[in-house]
Amino acid sequence: MRVSRLLSMATTAVLLSLPNQSFAIDVNATATALRLANTITGGYMPSNDPLFADMVTKVSAGDVQGAALIAANSKYFANYLARRLAFQMQNPALDSSVVTDSDATAYLIAHFTGAGGVKPSISSIWSENATYLVNVNGTPTHAAALTPAQLVSIDWMASLVAQPGQNAKDLAGAPVAIPAKHVGGYATLSDRINDNSFAEYGATAGTNLRMIEGIWEIATGLQLLDFASTSALVQDTPRFIPQYDPNFFKGQGQTACIACHGGGLPSANHGYATVADTFNFDAKNGFTYIAAPTTATKKSLGSDPALRAGNATCNLAANPLPVCNPDSLGVDANQGWDLSKTWMASGMLNTLGWSGPTSGQGLNALGAAIGQAKIVYENFVKRVVSEICPLGVFTQSEVSSIAAAANPNAKPAGSDDIRTIVAKVAAHASCQ
Question: For the whole model, what pTM was predicted?
Fold first, then answer.
């Protein structure tokens, strides 16, 4: 009753704010339009905006989804929900509270709403070789450089400008273009130290396992153990994983190490080879592209530089307890990946709804294939539901149907536009 009363009060306030009309006001349609506007634009769309009147007209005509689409196509959606979803995608926890505006968030907003003549595109989120800057009075500006005042006033949908290519730093700290083969869409975008981008999250310290794991987890909504396989091969395990560990082949009350490191996301052939020896993020240079990896720089040999040479040779006879796997094939210098070797037999490719290539070289090819998987679109549906209709009840069939409307690989081809998902979720009967 309290929620209904609050909605009634809000609707009354909106009605009182509308200019005098010569026709009867549809109170129910106004209330529905208000709910849609609040959930999709965060309440930023004012009731005196002509778009709101258009929404009321759509609802009055029985087209709730059309009204929702008006809100989703507005600058208010870009500034609110699209930006929030972009923040979330900078870490697998989808924690937007620790994220700030960066090249990565600008890139994602552009893919959610379109920018600079570029159409919205979910499928190219992990592969487009471009950087999106913000037009500030004619000057293309990195999102992380915007002042608080500019962040408040900026129109993200109208101000984003696409620029071809992506850049990082080399080992000496000089700017360097990332070769197209290694571009991972938003995952390889960072223009400064401590920009809270996914690139910083994934490539800082460690062995870059969390970089490839994060790409898969954020894209699919699945967790690390969901990808594990008991048909894993020792040869596909990264070299720094100690095979002598008692948990390697048979877990002691836990999943065996090889199930993930040889058959899951950390497996060299499931994408780890595309990032392990290629990227780094440190407090001196920020996001770094390593064109010519050496033993000293290869993260696939471990996070401790002092142990990398020993892990590279991995002589168990000379040193019985190195932190290494002597049977590992190591990371392919061509950054090759082959998902079919393990995931075809385990059924994981079916779970993912995989429709792209199952093998290739480099992060860019892998990202392009990920963007074609059915699960990506279903994951976005679930994320949108949690944002704008958390109490809604959606069957798996309904989730799949909404996802198909946005999936360009569905038959008929979907829109590749997240706003299609937003409008369909907001118009669902359980969200009314």
Answer: 0.93
